[in-house]
Amino acid sequence: MVLDAVEKVEAKRVLEIGCGSGIVSLALARRSIEVVAVDIDMKACRNTLANFKSNRLKGVVHVVNGDLAKAFRDGVGFDVVVSNPPYLPVEQSPGEDSSWAAGKDASFSRRLLENVLPLISDSGVMFLVQSSLSDLDGLKKTLKEKGLIVEEASCRSFFFERIILFKISKRLNPL
């Protein structure tokens, strides 16, 4: 879903939060878009960097090891922000892998949005993956209260949940 969405994006500068192996950033970089790929996991950053180097795209990609978007100052201005964050509504146990645990009330996504929204340019958008098992209504309400437009860009259904790709923007019909 994310790859399909970013294929249609016209942007000069993209931020991917939680880049993992870098597949989304790589797809964007192939189109000569400047990409900043961020992950808190150093192994993920190394994988992303290795994938960019093996595809000879290291000149249009910057890999940052950090927590969400805390490494950037407000007003940096990305055209597009993409994130497929942990979205399952469970709490993390101490010492447990947290790559899939988002907190019972989607607290991880809320923290992500608080960090990222100031970095999106006025005409920019954010693509955010979420689960129907999370507090989607609460998340949409919070975003709308901030004056943002929330659209369902795409969705995949499974027997126990729906995975939704939200398109979040500051104004109607950007990009």
For the secondary structure, the number of strands is 7
By CATH, the architecture is named 3-Layer(aba) Sandwich
One letter per element, helices H and strands E, the order comes to HEHEHEEHEHEE
Gross morphology is globular
Decide which structural class fits the backbone: alpha/beta
User: Mind summarizing the main beta sheet?
Assistant: 7 strands, mixed
- pLDDT average, as an integer? 80
Using the coordinates shown, work out and report the CATH topology: Rossmann fold
Low-confidence stretches: none
In what order do the strands lie side by side in the largest sheet?
3-2-1-4-5-7-6
Helix content: 25-40%
- Rg, rounded, reads 15 Å
CATH superfamily: Vaccinia Virus protein VP39
Number of helices: 5
Query: How many discrete domains?
Result: 1
What percentage of amino acids are in beta strands? 25-35%
At the first level of CATH, the class is Alpha Beta
Amino-to-carboxy terminus distance = 17 Å
Description:
There is one protein chain. The chain is α/β, with parallel strands linked by helices. The chain has helices spanning 2-7, 23-29, 42-54, 107-116, 136-145, and strands spanning 13-17, 34-39, 61-65, 78-83, 120-131, 149-157, 162-169. A 7-stranded mixed β-sheet has the order 3-2-1-4-5-7-6, sandwiched between helices. The two termini are 17 Å apart.
Keywords, please?
globular; 175 residues; 5 helices; single chain; alpha/beta; seven-stranded mixed beta sheet; Rossmann fold
Give a summary of the structure in a few sentences:
The protein has 175 residues and is α/β, with parallel strands linked by helices.
